[in-house]
From TrEMBL:
<dbReference type="InterPro" id="IPR037171">
    <property type="entry name" value="NagB/RpiA_transferase-like"/>
</dbReference>
<dbReference type="InterPro" id="IPR017896">
    <property type="entry name" value="4Fe4S_Fe-S-bd"/>
</dbReference>
<keyword id="KW-0408">Iron</keyword>
<dbReference type="InterPro" id="IPR009051">
    <property type="entry name" value="Helical_ferredxn"/>
</dbReference>
<keyword id="KW-0249">Electron transport</keyword>
<keyword id="KW-0004">4Fe-4S</keyword>
<dbReference type="GO" id="GO:0051539">
    <property type="term" value="F:4 iron, 4 sulfur cluster binding"/>
</dbReference>
<dbReference type="Pfam" id="PF13183">
    <property type="entry name" value="Fer4_8"/>
</dbReference>
<keyword id="KW-0479">Metal-binding</keyword>
<dbReference type="InterPro" id="IPR024569">
    <property type="entry name" value="LutB_C"/>
</dbReference>
<keyword id="KW-0411">Iron-sulfur</keyword>
<dbReference type="InterPro" id="IPR017900">
    <property type="entry name" value="4Fe4S_Fe_S_CS"/>
</dbReference>
<keyword id="KW-0813">Transport</keyword>
<dbReference type="Pfam" id="PF02589">
    <property type="entry name" value="LUD_dom"/>
</dbReference>
<dbReference type="InterPro" id="IPR004452">
    <property type="entry name" value="LutB/LldF"/>
</dbReference>
<dbReference type="Pfam" id="PF11870">
    <property type="entry name" value="LutB_C"/>
</dbReference>
<keyword id="KW-0677">Repeat</keyword>
Amino acid sequence: MDVTSPAFKDKAAHALTDAQLQRALGNIGHGFVHKRRQAADALPEFERLRDEAREIKTHTLAHLDLYIEAFADKVAAAGGQVHFAETAYDARRAVVDICRMHEARTVTKAKSMVSEEIELNRYLKKKGIAPIETDLGEYILQIRNEAPSHIIAPAIHLTRDQIEADFRRVHRHLSEARALDEPASLLAEARAILREKFLSSDVGITGANFLVAETGSAVIVTNEGNADLTQSLPKVHIVVTSIEKLVPTMEDASTLLRVLARSATGQDMSVYTTVTTGPRRPDDPDGPEEFHVVLVDNGRSGMLGTDFQEMLRCIRCGACMNHCPVYQAVGGHSYGWVYPGPMGAVLTPSLVGVEQTGHLPNASTFCGRCESVCPVRIPLPKLMRHWREDEFARHLQPRAARYGLGVWAFVARRPRLYRLATGLAAATLSRLAGSRGRLARLPLAGGWTRHRDLPAPAPRTFMAEWKARKRA
């Protein structure tokens, strides 16, 4: 997908006035946030598991080269093949080469945000290969020709009315009497349509939640079971995923699974947890004849050893965006690339460049909720601050913002001047606000007051109040 992050402000402003989007986003707090809190509270050792999950990922990243080699050896020993892809183009080419080798005309797909990152669907279509999304949310978005707006609930920006209208528009055979206003009925309709696609597909493409170096296995979790059909029915199974999904052992994967589902959807475990190790063996009742893993770097190795290495601990649960007040207000499409929310505000500049995505790390209140719910304890506010510092050091911010920060820094480094300036500002703004206690307009603060009133400060600063009380 094209990077539209430079238009974040315009997209966010439009999202705030989109009534249907706001109604859809209103479900996040009642769903994901509440369920995650219940699931975490019900598990006494949840915080300890978060610490263990953080250490597993930190250790793996410190020795990633060794675990990648071990994983590739185990995959080969099981009869599969690993394809290393340094760039998105390399990954696309690897997938298409495998498809052409088997003269594939259609591929079924399930559970792979990395395929969105490398724009795999667009490339497959260009090469005459039809990709069929089998996740219900992704299938709906394919009908609408839209990108996902969330990493685990891709169609969360849509209301039921919109989804039903799209189903009826595309599937004109549906009777008006056929009820499509519930997830179960939509799923049943999609299942009937997709069943034929599963059976006729030449190649199945999935992502992976974890890759296990100890066994050469790919672990994937879903709630619909579509990934199981995608990887077991076609003759060829291709896993398209990224290098940071490696974990050392199956026990490590088990620990991460215990925090993943609770953080993502508030479940103890996802409905389906599938472990795939190589192609079908002679005594297996089903499974693919070939097993390939396309291991994508696409800028991640450049994050190792930097301030942003901690971002590679991410296990894609989506908890940070579920709890983010900015994401809840503007949705995922405003962020302008594959990964939205706080995790996208750190990862997207790392992979795409902060020159195009500088608005994202600035679109944060720094309330800290993202870090407080992250199952692997990624310090997301700290990493967003690093990107802001990098922007400032490289003179990428607007001139007015840089001059404003320069004036602030000049005043803040001089205590007497700081006390004088803040004292005058507090007294003046408080007087202007009067009994209302807020300001509807203020020079140089139009970016704030255009949308909401500015709360007026107390008439005296904290330091002045403290001094007065101490004297009394």
